[in-house]
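User: structure tokens for this one?
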Amino acid sequence: MMLVSIIIPYYKKKDYIKKTINSILKQTYKKFEIIIINDEPGELSKNILSFLKKKDSRIKIINNKKNIGAGKSRNKGINIAKGKYIAFIDSDDLWKKNKLLKQIKFMHKRNIEICHTSYEIINDHSKTEGVRKAKLMNYKKLIKSCDIGLSTVMIKKSLIKNLRFSNLKTKEDFALWLKITKNGKIIYALNKNLTQWRKTDNSLSSSVTRKLIDGYYVYRYHLKFNVIKSLYSLLILSINFLNKAK
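Assistant:
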């Protein structure tokens, strides 16, 4: 069995983190390490995570001295990850119990370096509000629409040896997927609902203004598009997002 490093940035998710960790510990695939990067300085978060650490020896806690954001926190986790594969999950999302096993088998059988899965959208009360189906994504498709749930992604560590998440407040994962696919890599799709992504009203990912600003930065500064092309690409991205939300 191959080791999977599971990376979780933690910031003000005390109402959900226990359920997230439990969904990982219940996985049918058992060879993993959990790296939690605590991005919420203070004793409360340390106490919450220290209590969770006692549940399983595979859990590691990294405490940031100051808040640095989810992207940089995940980069810290990548730097110390020992697994051949890396899986990401946010601290309020959930995995179905066979998520890791099905994804490992899917990737190993096809010799795939990165893939994502379909996922359910849930609210604060864990009620399902929708489903997003996983689709095979290349650079051309990804520029127009980011149809990848971060908490569904599994990737070979070797693929991101020289790549990391950006320091944007949102869209930091979008920027990384574009970097990966820009050189011809494909993000494969496992069309099974193996993850539950939680949509909360006060999350950064729900802020339309923040998404628009960061989306522009991805095109303008990460992909080096000119102003007109950046604005046009952002418009297409926004239209596709609105179509998905219907």
